[in-house]
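Figure 2 data, in text form.
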Amino acid sequence: MLELATLGLLLREPLHGYRLKQQLELFMSSCISVNYGAIYPLLRRLEERGDIVTLMQEPGEAGPSRKIYEVTATGRDRWRQEMLGNPHESWVNTRSRFMIKFFFFNDLEPTERLKLLEHRLMVCRLRLESLEIEPMPPDRYQADAWRRHFSMLQAEIDWLQEQISKEPRSATPEQQRVITAKSEQSSLKNHELPLANHY
Protein backbone atom coordinates (compact mmCIF):
# COMPACT_ATOMS: atom_id res chain seq x y z
CA MET A 1 0.00 0.00 0.00
CA LEU A 2 2.89 2.36 0.67
CA GLU A 3 4.10 1.81 -2.90
CA LEU A 4 0.65 2.64 -4.28
CA ALA A 5 0.45 5.84 -2.24
CA THR A 6 4.02 6.87 -3.06
CA LEU A 7 3.62 6.44 -6.81
CA GLY A 8 0.28 8.24 -6.69
CA LEU A 9 1.71 11.27 -4.91
CA LEU A 10 4.74 11.41 -7.20
CA LEU A 11 2.40 11.33 -10.20
CA ARG A 12 0.81 14.51 -8.88
CA GLU A 13 4.13 16.33 -8.55
CA PRO A 14 7.86 15.61 -8.14
CA LEU A 15 8.83 15.36 -4.45
CA HIS A 16 11.85 14.66 -2.27
CA GLY A 17 11.68 12.06 0.48
CA TYR A 18 11.00 14.47 3.34
CA ARG A 19 8.13 16.21 1.53
CA LEU A 20 6.76 12.85 0.45
CA LYS A 21 6.66 11.70 4.08
CA GLN A 22 4.81 14.90 5.03
CA GLN A 23 2.21 14.29 2.32
CA LEU A 24 1.76 10.67 3.34
CA GLU A 25 1.31 11.62 7.00
CA LEU A 26 -1.14 14.39 6.12
CA PHE A 27 -3.43 12.38 3.87
CA MET A 28 -2.90 8.69 4.64
CA SER A 29 -1.65 8.20 8.20
CA SER A 30 -5.00 6.59 9.10
CA CYS A 31 -4.41 3.92 6.43
CA ILE A 32 -0.70 3.11 6.51
CA SER A 33 2.31 3.42 8.78
CA VAL A 34 4.61 6.21 7.58
CA ASN A 35 8.26 6.31 8.64
CA TYR A 36 11.64 7.05 7.08
CA GLY A 37 12.75 3.47 7.66
CA ALA A 38 10.23 2.35 5.02
CA ILE A 39 10.11 5.35 2.67
CA TYR A 40 13.76 5.68 1.65
CA PRO A 41 14.33 1.96 0.98
CA LEU A 42 11.11 2.02 -1.08
CA LEU A 43 12.33 5.00 -3.12
CA ARG A 44 15.59 3.18 -3.84
CA ARG A 45 13.71 0.06 -4.96
CA LEU A 46 11.39 2.06 -7.19
CA GLU A 47 14.34 3.86 -8.78
CA GLU A 48 16.25 0.61 -9.33
CA ARG A 49 13.16 -0.91 -10.92
CA GLY A 50 12.73 2.07 -13.23
CA ASP A 51 9.41 3.27 -11.78
CA ILE A 52 10.86 6.62 -10.70
CA VAL A 53 13.92 8.70 -11.61
CA THR A 54 15.84 11.49 -9.90
CA LEU A 55 14.68 14.70 -11.52
CA MET A 56 17.18 16.92 -9.75
CA GLN A 57 18.98 17.44 -6.46
CA GLU A 58 18.54 20.46 -4.24
CA PRO A 59 20.69 21.54 -1.29
CA GLY A 60 19.48 20.32 2.09
CA GLU A 61 18.72 22.84 4.83
CA ALA A 62 21.31 21.39 7.18
CA GLY A 63 22.79 18.29 5.62
CA PRO A 64 23.21 16.38 2.36
CA SER A 65 21.36 17.35 -0.81
CA ARG A 66 17.86 16.05 -1.42
CA LYS A 67 16.86 14.00 -4.43
CA ILE A 68 13.62 15.07 -6.08
CA TYR A 69 11.86 12.14 -7.72
CA GLU A 70 9.35 11.89 -10.54
CA VAL A 71 7.44 8.92 -11.96
CA THR A 72 8.41 7.30 -15.26
CA ALA A 73 6.01 5.85 -17.85
CA THR A 74 6.75 2.41 -16.39
CA GLY A 75 5.90 3.66 -12.92
CA ARG A 76 2.66 5.20 -14.17
CA ASP A 77 1.63 1.87 -15.73
CA ARG A 78 2.48 0.01 -12.51
CA TRP A 79 0.48 2.51 -10.45
CA ARG A 80 -2.59 2.08 -12.66
CA GLN A 81 -2.27 -1.69 -12.42
CA GLU A 82 -2.19 -1.50 -8.62
CA MET A 83 -5.06 0.99 -8.55
CA LEU A 84 -7.34 -1.28 -10.58
CA GLY A 85 -6.33 -4.54 -8.89
CA ASN A 86 -8.12 -6.19 -5.96
CA PRO A 87 -5.63 -8.45 -4.16
CA HIS A 88 -6.80 -10.94 -1.53
CA GLU A 89 -6.15 -9.28 1.83
CA SER A 90 -7.52 -9.06 5.34
CA TRP A 91 -10.63 -6.97 5.95
CA VAL A 92 -8.59 -4.20 7.61
CA ASN A 93 -6.11 -4.03 4.73
CA THR A 94 -8.81 -3.97 2.05
CA ARG A 95 -10.44 -0.96 3.72
CA SER A 96 -7.12 0.88 3.98
CA ARG A 97 -6.21 0.08 0.38
CA PHE A 98 -9.57 1.30 -0.89
CA MET A 99 -9.28 4.63 0.93
CA ILE A 100 -5.80 5.16 -0.53
CA LYS A 101 -7.24 4.46 -3.97
CA PHE A 102 -10.14 6.82 -3.34
CA PHE A 103 -7.69 9.64 -2.65
CA PHE A 104 -6.45 9.31 -6.25
CA PHE A 105 -9.85 8.78 -7.90
CA ASN A 106 -9.61 12.01 -9.90
CA ASP A 107 -6.76 10.45 -11.88
CA LEU A 108 -8.96 7.57 -13.10
CA GLU A 109 -11.63 7.31 -15.77
CA PRO A 110 -15.27 7.36 -14.54
CA THR A 111 -15.77 3.73 -15.56
CA GLU A 112 -12.69 2.74 -13.55
CA ARG A 113 -13.91 4.62 -10.49
CA LEU A 114 -17.34 3.01 -10.76
CA LYS A 115 -15.80 -0.44 -11.03
CA LEU A 116 -13.78 0.10 -7.84
CA LEU A 117 -16.74 1.62 -5.97
CA GLU A 118 -19.08 -1.20 -6.99
CA HIS A 119 -16.52 -3.85 -6.03
CA ARG A 120 -16.04 -2.26 -2.61
CA LEU A 121 -19.82 -2.05 -2.17
CA MET A 122 -20.15 -5.75 -2.99
CA VAL A 123 -17.42 -6.64 -0.46
CA CYS A 124 -19.08 -4.54 2.26
CA ARG A 125 -22.51 -6.07 1.61
CA LEU A 126 -21.11 -9.58 1.82
CA ARG A 127 -19.38 -8.65 5.07
CA LEU A 128 -22.63 -7.24 6.45
CA GLU A 129 -24.54 -10.39 5.48
CA SER A 130 -21.99 -12.56 7.26
CA LEU A 131 -22.37 -10.48 10.42
CA GLU A 132 -26.16 -10.62 10.37
CA ILE A 133 -26.21 -14.41 10.69
CA GLU A 134 -23.80 -14.46 13.63
CA PRO A 135 -25.32 -14.67 17.14
CA MET A 136 -24.95 -11.64 19.36
CA PRO A 137 -22.08 -12.08 21.86
CA PRO A 138 -23.34 -12.52 25.45
CA ASP A 139 -20.67 -10.18 26.86
CA ARG A 140 -21.96 -6.56 26.98
CA TYR A 141 -18.71 -5.02 25.77
CA GLN A 142 -18.30 -7.54 22.98
CA ALA A 143 -21.90 -6.91 21.94
CA ASP A 144 -21.34 -3.14 21.91
CA ALA A 145 -18.19 -3.62 19.84
CA TRP A 146 -20.15 -5.81 17.43
CA ARG A 147 -22.87 -3.15 17.10
CA ARG A 148 -20.22 -0.51 16.54
CA HIS A 149 -18.66 -2.52 13.73
CA PHE A 150 -22.09 -3.19 12.25
CA SER A 151 -23.05 0.50 12.26
CA MET A 152 -19.70 1.53 10.73
CA LEU A 153 -20.14 -1.05 7.99
CA GLN A 154 -23.65 0.17 7.24
CA ALA A 155 -22.39 3.76 7.17
CA GLU A 156 -19.71 2.78 4.65
CA ILE A 157 -22.31 1.09 2.45
CA ASP A 158 -24.45 4.24 2.52
CA TRP A 159 -21.41 6.36 1.69
CA LEU A 160 -20.40 4.11 -1.21
CA GLN A 161 -23.90 4.28 -2.66
CA GLU A 162 -23.75 8.06 -2.41
CA GLN A 163 -20.39 8.14 -4.20
CA ILE A 164 -21.72 5.90 -6.97
CA SER A 165 -24.70 8.19 -7.48
CA LYS A 166 -22.37 11.18 -7.89
CA GLU A 167 -20.25 9.59 -10.61
CA PRO A 168 -20.82 10.84 -14.16
CA ARG A 169 -21.29 7.94 -16.50
CA SER A 170 -19.20 9.35 -19.36
CA ALA A 171 -16.58 12.00 -18.58
CA THR A 172 -12.84 12.22 -19.07
CA PRO A 173 -10.58 13.01 -16.08
CA GLU A 174 -10.25 16.59 -17.37
CA GLN A 175 -14.03 16.96 -17.66
CA GLN A 176 -14.40 15.52 -14.17
CA ARG A 177 -11.96 18.12 -12.80
CA VAL A 178 -14.13 20.85 -14.36
CA ILE A 179 -17.28 19.28 -12.86
CA THR A 180 -15.59 19.09 -9.45
CA ALA A 181 -14.42 22.71 -9.64
CA LYS A 182 -17.90 23.94 -10.56
CA SER A 183 -19.43 21.90 -7.74
CA GLU A 184 -17.00 23.41 -5.23
CA GLN A 185 -17.71 26.95 -6.48
CA SER A 186 -21.44 26.35 -6.21
CA SER A 187 -21.03 24.96 -2.69
CA LEU A 188 -18.97 27.98 -1.68
CA LYS A 189 -21.59 30.40 -3.01
CA ASN A 190 -24.37 28.58 -1.19
CA HIS A 191 -22.34 28.71 2.00
CA GLU A 192 -21.77 32.46 1.66
CA LEU A 193 -25.38 33.43 0.92
CA PRO A 194 -26.73 33.16 4.50
CA LEU A 195 -23.89 35.35 5.74
CA ALA A 196 -24.68 38.05 3.19
CA ASN A 197 -28.37 38.01 4.09
CA HIS A 198 -27.55 38.11 7.79
CA TYR A 199 -25.55 41.30 7.47
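Caption note: The helical segments are 2-12, 17-28, 36-49, 73-84, 91-103, 110-132, 140-166, 173-198.
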